[in-house]
């Protein structure tokens, strides 16, 4: 019988930015990272990550919330549960309702799910990808977070790391960034491709009006042209008008939303974020449902490295033609906590054939950026 979880730690890191990163949601003035570590009675441990990019300073709230609720939420668990995310969210359901915070609660539960999977894989001596039913194989990746005002420098930086696929932000600034999107597309080299992400900037009519400037650029996909919770009829209307596959899912917060989105025919690419919702158990379920429906699974990720590596293992496990998202904006915490940097090898992102994630995050090496560290005992 596996030992129960007895200890949980929350590590909060933050990298201030000299120049803010502009987004549809407003400027990012810092890059935060929230890591958790769970440990069982035998001393075995696993790591997870909590999504915490928005709102500004939301990482402080999530760090405190995680420190308060995780010890009770993990009581009696061993890491052998088939779907820890469901167990934990059920335990925290009333709190999420009462506080009006289903998002932060799901993000914390997702991190715990990842950590418990990591722990279980380490116990078995297998990589996460193998635990999830696949093999630890390299996965194709793309460079995301390309800013309209910095695309040339970001292209060159990520090309030097082996990337040939790029995703640029649009939907804000003068002309909604469409002139810069055209300029960036004109600089693509042979064999390079591009996607664009509007981050929910428009309503359906506005999105359709923008298509005549986006479609000719040959984008692989148009991501979140309208809000994630807009009616599926609006998503279908944009999809039918565009001729470009639509991508979305990072802002879905329930299984029902994913099921409806997959069945709707509006999406070509489904992008759950395991650090926002579902962890590895929920993410794997959605990924396989999307693949069975003929869609492409491309995990969304924007954070501090642990979630990136866990997403790579999941993509390796489920297969398909999906791409791993790797942020190209300034974020040393992403490089550091990935355990290996961000460079591709032979055009793909390596997935280590070692137990669990394949490494231990170097929290001591980022101590100069640590904001807080909390530790809680988990009752048996």
UniProtKB/TrEMBL annotation:
Q: Which residues form the Mandelate racemase/muconate lactonizing enzyme C-terminal domain?
A: 148-245
Cite a single Pfam family from the UniProt record: MR_MLE_C
**By its UniProt entry, which InterPro entries does this protein fall under?**
DgoD-like, Enolase-like_C_sf, Enolase-like_N, Enolase_C-like, Mandelate_racemase_C, Mandelate_racemase_N_dom
Q: Which UniProt keywords apply?
A: Lyase
UniProt xrefs under CDD domains: MR_like
Cross-referenced PANTHER family, in alphabetical order? Answer: D-GALACTONATE DEHYDRATASE (PTHR48080:SF2), D-GALACTONATE DEHYDRATASE-RELATED (PTHR48080)
Q: What is this protein called?
A: Mandelate racemase/muconate lactonizing enzyme family protein
Q: What is the scientific name of the source organism?
A: Psychromarinibacter halotolerans
């Amino acid at each position: 019988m596996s030992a129960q979880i007895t200890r949980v730690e929350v590590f909060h890191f933050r990298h201030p930015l000299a120049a803010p990163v502009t987004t549809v949601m407003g400027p990012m003035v810092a890059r935060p990272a929230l890591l958790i570590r769970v440990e069982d009675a035998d001393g075995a441990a696993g790591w997870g990550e909590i999504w915490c990019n928005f709102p500004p300073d939301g990482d402080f709230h999530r760090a405190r919330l995680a420190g308060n609720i995780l010890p009770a939420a993990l009581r009696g668990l061993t890491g052998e549960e088939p779907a820890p995310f469901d167990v934990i969210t059920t335990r925290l359901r009333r709190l999420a309702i009462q506080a009006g915070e289903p998002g932060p609660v799901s993000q914390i539960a997702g991190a715990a799910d990842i950590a418990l999977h990591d722990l279980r894989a380490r116990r078995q001596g297998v990589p996460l990808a193998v635990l999830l039913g696949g093999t630890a194989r390299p996965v194709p990746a793309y460079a995301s977070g390309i800013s309209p005002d910095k695309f040339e420098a970001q292209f060159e930086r990520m090309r030097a790391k082996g990337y040939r696929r790029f995703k640029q932000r649009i939907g804000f600034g003068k002309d909604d960034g469409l002139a810069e999107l055209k300029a960036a597309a004109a600089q693509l080299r042979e064999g390079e491709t591009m996607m664009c992400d509007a981050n929910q900037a428009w309503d359906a009519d506005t999105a359709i009006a923008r298509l005549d400037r986006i479609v000719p650029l040959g984008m692989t996909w148009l991501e979140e042209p309208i809000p994630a919770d807009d009616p599926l009829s609006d998503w279908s209307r944009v999809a039918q008008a565009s001729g470009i596959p639509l991508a979305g899912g990072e802002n879905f917060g329930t299984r029902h939303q994913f099921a409806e989105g997959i069945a709707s025919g509006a999406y070509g690419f489904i992008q759950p974020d395991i650090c926002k919702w579902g962890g590895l158990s929920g993410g794997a379920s959605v990924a396989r449902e999307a693949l069975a429906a003929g869609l492409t699974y491309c995990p969304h990720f924007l954070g501090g490295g642990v979630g990136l590596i866990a997403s790579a293992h999941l993509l390796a496990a489920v297969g398909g033609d999906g791409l791993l998202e790797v942020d190209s904006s300034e974020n040393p915490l992403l490089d550091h906590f990935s355990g290996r940097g961000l460079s591709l090898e032979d055009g793909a992102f390596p997935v280590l054939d070692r137990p669990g994630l394949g490494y231990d995050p170097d929290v001591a090496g980022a101590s100069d950026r640590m904001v807080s560290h909390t530790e809680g005992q988990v009752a048996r």
